[in-house]
From TrEMBL:
The chain crosses the membrane at residues 56-74, 244-264, 270-296, 689-714, 720-738, 766-785, 791-809, 829-848, 860-881. SMART domains: Cation_ATPase_N. It is found in: Membrane. Keywords: ATP-binding, Ion transport, Membrane, Nucleotide-binding, Phosphoprotein, Translocase, Transmembrane, Transmembrane helix, Transport. It comes from Virgibacillus siamensis. Belongs to the cation transport ATPase (P-type) (TC 3.A.3) family. Type IIA subfamily. The keyword Transport applies. NCBIfam families: ATPase_P-type. Residues 2-76 form the Cation-transporting P-type ATPase N-terminal domain. PROSITE patterns: ATPASE_E1_E2. SUPFAM superfamilies: Calcium ATPase, transduction domain A, Calcium ATPase, transmembrane domain M, HAD-like, Metal cation-transporting ATPase, ATP-binding domain N. It comes from the Bacteria. It is a multi-pass membrane protein. This is Calcium-translocating P-type ATPase, SERCA-type.
Amino acid sequence: MNWYQLDAETVEQKLHVTTGAGLKAKQVDKRRKEFGANKLLTEKEVSRWLIFLKQFQDFMVLVLLAATLIAGVLGEYVDAIAIMVIVLVNGFLGYFQEQKAEKSLAKLKEMSAPVASVMREGEWVKIPSGDVVVGDVVRINSGDRIPADLRLTKSNSMETEESALTGESLPVMKHASAIRKDGLDAQDQVNMGFMGTLVTRGSGVGIVVGTGMNTVMGQIASLMTGTTKTITPLERKLAELGKILIFAALILTALVVVVGVYQGHPIYNMFLAGVSLAVAAIPEGLPAIVTVALSLGVQRMIRKKAIVRKLSAVETLGCASVICSDKTGTLTENQMTVKELYVNGKHLYVTGNGYSVQGDYFLNDKKVDRDFPNLNSMLLYGMLCNNASLQLRKGKYNIDGDPTDGALLVAARKFGLSHVLHDQYKVVKEIPFDSTRKRMSMIIEDENKMRFLITKGAPEVLLPRSDFYLSEDGRKMMRTTDKQTVENAINGMAQNALRTIAIAMKPLPDDGDADAAVLENELTFVGLYGMMDPPRKEVKAAVNECREAGIKTVMITGDHEKTARAIAENLNILPAGGMVLNGYQLNQMSISDLREVIDDVSVFARVTPEHKLKIVKAYQENGHVAAMTGDGVNDAPAIKASDIGISMGRTGTDVTKEASSLILMDDNFTTIKDAIIEGRNIYENIRKFIRYLLASNVGEILVMLFAMLLALPLPLVPVQILWVNLVTDGLPAMALGLDQSEDDVMKRGPRNPREGIFSRGLGFKIVSRGILIGVITLASFMLTYQGTEESLVYGQTVAFTTLVMAQLIHVFDCRSEKSVFARNPFQNIYLVLAVLSSLILLLGVIYWEPLQPIFHTTFLGIRDWMLILVLSSLPTVLFGFTKK
């Protein structure tokens, strides 16, 4: 069916829907069953069996399986079965780790999916784009991605970018009228909106006529199904580290084997020991643990209202040195409230807070009545030149739309103007707001078919276009002195931290449908709205905490300079004598000029999205790691150019979200601070388990190497080495990845982005602890091995137990860069449980008789345990109380 050829009323009839009411719940369920979810076909998921089998692709695991086969052929069935069981358990652990990471990332994609604004049962609601069905009435604005194929029923100067369909990047102007031609291609169906295309200008309403694979985009879905897994710089760095460690481990393992054979040990025994040692020494679980740590950290961020779209942002967050934050909604409540009006040359004050319609108007201390000149007209104009709606939900008023528009609606309702009054007027045309024009206009037709233009916007934009003003005596010519009076009123409001919006009107002839440049001139100035969006209560403390962490907070706003200064001072963003730059000054400065002063600037006022890009580049050229927030489509370049792009989850456009690394679900500055804490903590946790794993591995290799050099028997048998690798290394290392942040995490400076993994003394900690673990393990073996065959199993059991206990004690030392007692050991309950489970399993292989011949262990007495505990505590006692 060619929907573009039908008029809007026919489309409504065929789809059994009206644009004023939308679909009912029963219709939605029926159509979802009939047409399916609004999603394009994607690549098939990898089979769980393939994921499981992938755990055995590692070269060293394959060598170990070959060694197991050889052990079986040679009749060493107990060793073969034990090693096979350990390999299988290790495979299952890797499988579950990978499944956990994939599920976390899938949930993340689901949460960061675009949303659509649809009319359901008479109310505008926001739903995931995948839940849109055929017949849904959809509202779209500049910056939105169209969720499905639409037949437009309303277009307000709407343009879309359709390069995904046609390859043509120039925007396409849209209208809502039927097109009677046959056989038009998609690019010529200008009354249609197509799934996946971007609204670059204006707004519109349309009825969904195609979803999922039944869209034009569905026809080329094969071009959009390929996905690549994101590899973070940290993961890449660790992969390179892994190759170096594999090379070093193989050389040391080969050295152990060669020396052992030279000392007279059987070749088969040394081969099996070498393979086991290589498997234990190579941290093959490191990438999986890093992935799990990142994905679990991402889940914690989601619970704190921050969605990470790019995993690289997690590590970059720890390097952030400056946060460039929007004011409205991020630093403030995003409940714009009109507090003052300037009309007839007088200042009126408005009571009431937020979106409650309870409030009154006062002139000085006297309540204003309905007869106050021009007040009714000014409030009516503000209500008509408006795209927001005021809705009562659960006894509380909410705004659906722009908060500034919402504030004008609430102001009108406080004066007694009903939304029913709005229905007496018809919107003929809308000239939408954009950041360059700083104004919006609507052509309105009243009941008498008389037309007039209403324009609202920045006072500095409207005042030069106003040739007249409205006084108590009617319309008068605007003189220079009159303009100066209005400017004084603007400055007075700004000093009281009020944001000012001017409103003007112009009578039009019947055919008043000229270009905006012509229409928005020779205006009649009506008055000023002074409104305030109160600062969020929690932001002040968050700003101070960021300052302690070495992170500078900068406020960026389109508000008047004096308004911005007042709010920044209230939030402690602007220090005494701090610098404020406005948009005009930014226009006069090159990036090099801006670089010279930017470190002294705390507030940017009257800023456009274009200025944001200049600000980001200046900070980056000064060596800062900059986080930039934004919500509009024009913010996307600055968001993308910044080191950490942050978009608004509530008010942000889809294109801004796609350009960002982080989405704030609550649009709250405090969430940025929480995300930085989490980002720093994730990086520190990765350092912790690298420290633990590598120190443990160094100890395991050295105990074997030292024993061979001293011509001693093997202090550890292969199955014991594999057991340590599986139980003692794996579980505690995973638990370290879940460690809570330290109390002083936000009292340290930002991490240098060029910092290596082994910086800040980590390399020394790994080597020193590893050597000591190896030495005390060998010492325990030498003290208990008496040179006889009977004492060998006893000595190996003591050495095995000492190695395990040394690692289990050392893991608590890894929780802090300071000392082992710097943190409460019971704070990380996962680590406590991991250590306890490892300890229980250790006791099982020592004292449960059926396992003793498998793991080559024997019973240990009290005196043995005293020796083991003293020796295994030495690494922590000697080094655990220092920062080195």
